[in-house]
Amino acid sequence: MKIITTIKNVFFAALLLGVTGSITPGCNGNSGKESGSDSTSTASSGTNDDKTLLGAGSTFVYPLFSKQFSEYNKLTGLKINYQSIGSGGGILQLTNKTVDFGDSDAPLTEEQAQKMGVPVLHIPMCSGAVVISYNLPEVKDTLKISPEVLAEIYLGKITKWNDAKIAAINAGVKLPATPIVIAHRSDGSGTTNIFTDYLCKVNDEWKTKVGKGTSVNWPQGIGGKGNEGVAGLIKQTPGGIGYIELAYAVQNKMAYAKVQNKSGNYITPNIASTSAASNVQLPADSKIFLGNTDAADGYPISGFTWALIYQEQNYNNRSQERAQNVVKLLWWTIHDGQQFCQGLNYAPLSPAAVTVAENILKSATFNAKPLM
Amino acid sequence: MMNVWKNVKIKRAFHQIRMEKFFKTSLVLIALSILILVISFLLTLVVQSMPSIKALGFGFLVGKTWDPVANVYGTYPFLLGTLLTSFLALLISIPFSFAIAIFLGEYFPRGWFSEFLKNSIELIAAVPSVIYGFWGLFVLVPLVRSLEIKLGVTPYGIGIFTSSVILAIMIIPYAASLGREMIRMVPSSLKEAAYSLGATRYEVIRAVILPYAKSGLMAGVLLSLGRALGETMAVTMVIGNTSLIPKSIFDPGNTMASVIANEFTEAASSLYLSSLIELGLVLFLVTVVINLIGKRIIKRFTTE
């Protein structure tokens, strides 16, 4: 009985709270409405406040952006509020015109571009590498991996570490007979996109059977959430292999393999070899996956992250000043802002990429007149 | 003087009536708003999953492939994973939760030790699920892995079994607390009557207390099942997240809740997004159906 009365009391108290809550707006409903419209007007004036720019998108680039934007704020007083909600979310917010710029680890898909309706500029911000990490306590040398071996491991064709194909490219390394446990990302991710795009380029079977995307139907393996999830699976499972971002692997001192590039060289992933990967002939719109680069000294599994803005900046009654601020900010990030890449283990844009990015930014317009 | 007094009385009566009416209306309004909330949940889910329902139809439920690249979405592996982990968790947790309920309800209903035990069990329910995930990943997974090595199955460590154990621990307090209250509410006259007839303590528990508290115990079990079905974070961290259909309970798998949590942020195509929302709808319906079945069971137990 005691419990029931306690429950009753609690219920009654909750009710009273609810009632008083409902009375307040009931008694002065007008003021309630007013305060409601007040808050929306502050929200919209927040977006109209030309001293604050809004951005949303990729989580990959977030650490770099927060560093760059805080430096930019010191220089110019301009505030940039960037929400790292994922590339897909950033694209959606740009489509709904609730942010000034988005950021995505992959170019817009046809469907996404169609939803935008108007041309969207892709400006490369930096590039990142995806490394192949493994857990073989017995192996002291750095493992070498060829595209063929990597694809066959992920297709489930090579199942043991001492497979003849792995041994052939790792002469002198004593490989254990441990079974290979494959780890992949379970959350949708730009890292997965870069990795699967690379596998598509180097292996036809992968291309037809699996394909590329932020999430794919993995023929084998177990999934971990985020870089930390995959890294955890690799660290815990003897014989584990998985792909993670270079920055994460470096910071956590994980072992990662040299990967053979198109020119046949085995390349250690680092900032220099990742930057080198983008130092090739790039298309004018920069929409290219860098995987399997032609650069002889370039690491083959890497990709850009792009800031996305509308080419015509006069929409939603935006002021020209605001549009100018966006373009200036991006101009700064591809030039002076690049100095912060190295410290955070991002690869700065190659000279070729900077030139392309400059030209793209120059094509941004306000009322059909160039902004720069 | 009399008149004034009368007026005051009438005024007071009016005030009372108004207060009554006001109280009643606000009660109805609050109750209605909850109803509207649930219905709009359902409506939103249905409307948003329309594109996927149209494109995939019934195949969504029975399809075995979840391939965002080819835009083929079959939820069967996740449906299976959700039901497997939840019911396995329930199976593991029931002996513990019933034992705790009987112990705290009948053997040690009072005293500092009983309070201490009771509070620690309630604490289990208060720990955030991500902490269970961490604990599972760093403590339980290696343990399960060594067990798997002994059993001769592929030693992933993570998988359906590990998730079920984590879930079982997480849901114990729900069935245990409710069961304890129910057992304590068994009238002592009944128990004393049984004792006077020469029944032992075990016999009293078996023949008097458990039948009397049956509906409460079942309700607790149902509550914990509901919790297990929707649990996301801890499961995602230890289940292995693969869309392959698990062949044994030691294989990695996936649940509906964890697929939604994993893939929602980067779902780029509209059919993909809609399929994830439909997955939410299916989870919603599964929970509702299981709740209804459970209520039916409780009703049968109590009327018998």
TrEMBL record, chain A:
InterPro entries, alphabetized: ABC_phos-bd_PstS, PBP_domain, Phosphate-bind_PstS
Domain PBP per the UniProt entry, residue ranges: 43-315
Record GO terms (molecular function): phosphate ion binding
GO CC entries: ATP-binding cassette (ABC) transporter complex
Keywords, sorted A to Z: Phosphate transport, Transport
Gene Ontology terms: biological process: phosphate ion transmembrane transport
Keyword Transferase: no
The keyword Ribosomal protein appears for this protein: no
Residues covered by region (Disordered): 28-49
Biased composition (Low complexity): 37-47
CDD domains in alphabetical order: PBP2_PstS
Pfam families named in the record: PBP_like_2
UniProt record similarity statement: Belongs to the PstS family.
Record text on subunit structure and interactions: The complex is composed of two ATP-binding proteins (PstB), two transmembrane proteins (PstC and PstA) and a solute-binding protein (PstS).
Protein purpose: Part of the ABC transporter complex PstSACB involved in phosphate import.
Record protein name field: Phosphate-binding protein
Organism expressing this protein natively: Ginsengibacter hankyongi
Gene: pstS
